[in-house]
Specification:
Blueprint (H helix, E strand, L loop, with lengths): L6 E4 L17 E4 L4 E3 L4 E5 L2 E4 L4 E7 L3 H5 L1 E3 L4 E4 L12 E6 L3 E3 L4 E9 L27
């Protein structure tokens, strides 16, 4: 498996260090670096306590953990966050944050796992070729893969 070295600065000694858990998932958990009390309807940028310098040609995708809504009543306001390699490359003042909206009163504590990320190469350049129609069999439309 290809490995990349990512330079990282921790801005909090209270959060666990990032770790790649081989064989479980290639998404890596991020933790809150602050205690935060939010009332229903409030917006906040949750400090994740790290800055990273990504290699050229890479981006970082931040998404909520599957349990974030259930445990904290938070929705990530931009659905996913896309961080390109220019953010944090030159300054450790570019600290990762998670923009959230509370749908109920909630509390987040230092070191709570609230989101996850993965690093990936930029999408290759694409040429769109217009055709009169696609020849494959239909899947059944949006949301058609079932409930189980």
């Amino acid at each position: 498996m290809e490995q990349e070295v990512i330079k990282i600065t921790y801005h909090s000694q209270e959060i666990d260090k990032l770790e790649y858990i081989d064989g479980k998932s290639d998404w890596i958990d991020l933790r809150s670096a602050e205690n935060k009390v939010l009332k229903k309807g409030e917006f906040a940028l949750i400090n994740l306590g790290v800055s990273m310098s990504l290699p050229d040609g890479y981006e970082l995708i931040i998404a909520p953990r599957s349990s974030t809504f259930k445990n904290f009543g938070l929705i990530q306001t931009n659905s996913i966050g896309v961080v390109d390699e220019s953010y944090g490359k030159y300054s450790d003042q570019d600290i990762l944050r998670m923009p959230v909206l509370a749908v109920r009163d909630t509390e987040i504590h230092v070191n709570d796992r609230i989101c996850q990320f993965r690093i990936q190469k930029h999408q290759p350049k694409i040429i769109f070729e217009e055709v009169q129609g696609l020849s494959g069999e239909a899947r059944g439309g949006f949301g058609s893969t079932g409930k189980q």
